[in-house]
Amino acid sequence: MSLREIARFTDVYEAELAAAFLASHGLAVTVTERFQTTVDPLMQRALGIRLMAPASMILEARALLARVQAGEFATDEGDDLPGIETGTRAVGTVMAFAAFATGGFWGNSLPRRFRPVAWQGVLLAIALFVVAAVGVWLVGELLLNPP
Predict the structure, then answer these.
(1) What is the enclosing helix (H) or strand (E) of 9?
(2) Backbone phi and psi for residue 52, each to the nearest 5 degrees, phi listed first
(3) What are the residue ranges in the chain where pLDDT is below 70?
């Protein structure tokens, strides 16, 4: 049984939501390029994320996705999440400003590209620079003013 493309998305999470929606309606679909696009997010736009299904399910799946885009499943209830109050937004803004003003966010959730400075290495480099500068100065003095 060969799989055919139902739809193409530029975001892996949007594709996963569509796949979950179709699965809730009894259609088994697969999301392709998931691994490549989550390893390198820039590949999402280059490859596109495809929803694939057997040929017998394509028309039904496309019809369901078209009904979703038309807003047929939308409700007037809104989200279950509480609204953002003005005070909460102000506190978040101050925290973001403080984080960036003090050198960024620190913790385990960030990539390990920016590590704390190794002060031993900095001091060793300064000491080697000073020793080299003094050595060059002494050699210059000896060449210009022989004993």
Answers:
(1) strand 3-9
(2) -120, 145
(3) 1, 78-118
Q: Which residue pairs from 18-22 have beta carbons closer than 8 angstroms and sit at least 24 positions apart in sequence? A: 18/51, 18/65, 18/68, 19/51, 21/64, 21/65, 21/68, 22/51, 22/53, 22/61, 22/64, 22/65
Give dist(CA 105, CA 42) in Å, integer: 23
Give the pLDDT confidence score for residue 120 in this predicted structure.
Answer: 77
- 135, β-bridge pairs: none
Q: For the chain, how many residues are written?
A: 147
- Number of Cβ within 10 Å of residue 82's Cβ equals 7
d(CA 102, CA 58): 53
- The answer to whether 50 touches 7, Cβ cutoff 8 Å, is yes
CA angle 139, 143, 147 (to 5 degrees): 105
Residue pair 7/51 in contact by the 8 Å Cβ criterion: yes
pTM above 0.70, yes or no: no
- DSSP for 37-106 reads HHHSTTHHHHH-EEEEEEGGGHHHHHHHHHHHHTTTT--SS--SSPPPPHHHHHHHHHHHHHHHHTTS--
